Amino acid sequence: MTTTAHGVSIVRTCPVCGATNNIRAAPISTSGRCHACKAAWRLTEPILVDEASFAAITRNTRLPIVTVFCDARSAPCRRMAPDLHELARETSGRAIFLKVDTEQHPQIGYEFGARSLPHSVILRDGQVISDQAGAVGQAALRRWLCAYVDPSGARPLCPTVFVRLMNGFREWLSSLTNRRADDDDATSIRKAARA
Ligand SMILES: [Zn+2]
Questions:
Q1: Do 45 and 134 reside in the same domain of the chain?
Q2: What's the CA-to-centroid distance between 111 and ligand 1, angstroms?
């Protein structure tokens, strides 16, 4: 199943009845019900985006967004695809996975410096918070993601100690760059309240 987005609409085929559902992209809906058979659905797969939907989703989503720039003809990109699907399923509701075909939409790739494909970035509030060039295996992808994706899911991505270390590192980095100070304060307060 391929879920694709055009502009502010995401087109998703219902796996139960095969009906086409138009899902809101901005802000993105990560769950709902099929308009035809009423089966509940959750967004568990990467979304193939164009320029307009990439902009709409990344500007209006608070969740971390994992974007992978790839070329359908590239063997490393094809090898990485099943691992991306698996991690998108595991982190459903906690992260959004987007795929950009750089043959069809080269401009987004240029903007993010995607020269060696696949090239992956994690975005939050429209800013790149981490990037990774080249193909990596599922274990390495999971380790990379676990520092940025809320670990509170039924199946934690990585050991809690590692998450705490990485959260400490991220706070230290953000204090250095002093970016979005207000947002960081709010996050720290929420974290302190949760601890
Ligand atoms: Zn349906």
A1: yes
A2: 37
